[in-house]
Amino acid sequence: MDKIIIKTEEQINGIRKSAQLAGNTLKFISDYIKEGVSTEYLNNKIEEYIRDNKAIPAPLNYNGFPKSCCISLNNVICHGIPSEKEILKEGDILNVDVTTILDGYYGDTSTMFTIGECTDQAFDLIENTEHALYLGIDQVRPGNYFGNIGYNIGRFAKSKGYSVVYDFCGHGVGLEFHEEPQVEHSCPRNTGYKMQPGMIFTIEPMINLGKAKAIIDKNDGWTARTADGSLSAQFEHTILVTESGFEILSDVGEYDIFK
Ligand code: MF3
Ligand code: CO
Ligand code: CO
């Protein structure tokens, strides 16, 4: 427990600014997401926007990650590496995950987008994954168990016949990219640490249409795909525990994710 940082007011304000920038980066890039563009192009636009705002893209060179954001298409669960060879096409679904370092503070958020006509299954997976994130966020308040975030996400996902990825978790965030604790997205009720005001962490469920198992690409060491080739969706926010509940630090309001 003592490894979970309780942020000061000054740190909270800094992390909020960074998380808002990360959210605004997703809003910014939404205008460029369309059929025919490469994920490399989107990566470059994202990097430019972040640097124009006097911040640094956290993924670049993080444990050797080669790009400034993660873009994960279709059966890619997370940590997709943007590439000029990867061109968006009708029917694709993708997650764009942006993490910013602004004045030394980290903000981390991701959203799904769709390209043109997708299957009903794909749309439902996306809507239900976003709903699952908000069911998790609803559990954030002082004194509640971290386990209840994953308990509610997991129960809902399973009720829809989906599976929840267990190889990747949410995480404390703010002074570092990945801090304690790990925030599981499917776990037993009333388990783990208790939340306290001033804790900041991500919730970022990855939900698969098929089985939960993930396989990491042997060549690049990053790209995580569903073992069975099924579609995967993810949404992520940076959340502050307040005296009365939560604040979604990376929330920048509505924008269109269906392209
Ligand atoms: N942004 C991811 C997360 O939500 C982490 C990406 S690590 C990277 O935790 F190196 F792939 F960028
Ligand atoms: Co994260
Ligand atoms: Co992220």
Q: What is shown here, in short?
A:
The protein has 259 residues and is an alpha+beta fold. It has a single domain (9-248), classed as Creatine Amidinohydrolase (Alpha-Beta Complex), CATH 3.90.230. Helix content is 26%, strand content 24%.
Topology (elements, then pairings):
Layout: H1 9-30, H2 39-52, E1 56-57, E2 70-73, E3 76-78, E4 93-102, E5 105-114, H3 120-137, H4 147-159, E6 163-164, E7 170-172, E8 179-183, E9 200-203, E10 206-208, E11 214-216, E12 224-226, E13 232-234, E14 237-241, E15 246-248
Antiparallel strand pairs: 1-4, 2-4, 3-12, 4-5, 6-10, 7-8, 9-14, 10-13, 11-12, 14-15
Bound molecules: 2-amino-4-trifluoromethylsulfanyl-butyric acid (MF3) and cobalt (II) ion (2 copies).
